[in-house]
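>> received
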Amino acid sequence: MEYKARGIPVHYVEHGDGAPLLVLHGAGVDHREMVGAMEPIFSGIDDCRRFYPDLPGMGRTPAGTLDSADDVLDLLLAFIDGVIGGGKFRLMGHSAGAYYARAITGRRPEQVTGLALICPLGENVRNLPAHQVLHVSTDPRETLGPAEASVFRDYFVVQTQSMLERYKQYIVPALGLVDQEGLERIGQHWLFSSSPEAGPPYSSPVLIVTGRQDSTVGYAGHWDLLEHYPRATFAVLDRAGHALPHEQPGLTTALITEWLDRVREHRVGTGL
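>> returned
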């Protein structure tokens, strides 16, 4: 489906019925990576209407003339107003998508009933671990070109056949759709003009999940977010890099299911 927000056609897919959940993917891919990682979890959950948009410059959503994170945020808020409406919704993001999710929550804290951040991109990256492959049982060069195989080796810390199949199904198709010029233009101004956590502490349930071997955004700097999110669960998962939802699906399922339970309980308890 497609919705024109601020003059840009935003492509998205929708699954399920019930209370809305907006899911934002990271940089360099499109909605399919999060669909592949999250639908096995959400498809068995009642009352969950999932929206997966392609972020600008990726998938089938053009970057247009957007040239900053603030521009992308404004587009996402317009998309929310047009597709989800003025009602309440839950929000999840991976990597850069988590950075935008933080900003959306900062702008709309009363509308967002729960926030989940997976390997979130942040301003305070520190103690970044070197890329470390923990398990290898497949060679991507047997079925992929040199460039795609290189991305796989640099992205996954668990390089099994099942990880390779996930990569080929959910990530490779998006690589050729990236508007590199558009992303580079936006990336020159990737910091928001004001911090997503500049306002009062966000009081609804939050989940922050990081990978111990994540060489892209690390795990240490995310601890700084906890003061702003007093209802946050913070987890650092071993055997997980930036592809954490794929590499640790069992723990990801358990943590997200528990987060959803906390969101429902909070809404009932507070009458939201």
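>> The two ends are 29 Å apart (CA to CA).
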